Amino acid sequence: xxxxxxxxxxxxxxxxxxxxxxxxxxxxxxxxxxxxxxxxxxxxxxxxxxxxxxxxxxxxxxxxxxxxxxxxx
Length: 73
Hints:
Layout: H1 3-9, H2 13-17, H3 27-32, H4 43-46, H5 50-66
């Protein structure tokens, strides 16, 4: 495998979609990044880059505050 194909497959899901900041109203993607107990998946487990993992953390906290996501299920 060449280096170019390796880098394309290892990008995080938000980089592949071309998203700058994760929106707190995008509940479908945010639910996939939390466990059944409501904890966030780590970067290694979710495959996110550092920029998008930080954005996901803030978005999940906002969605919880707004009542879109539960704190604990």
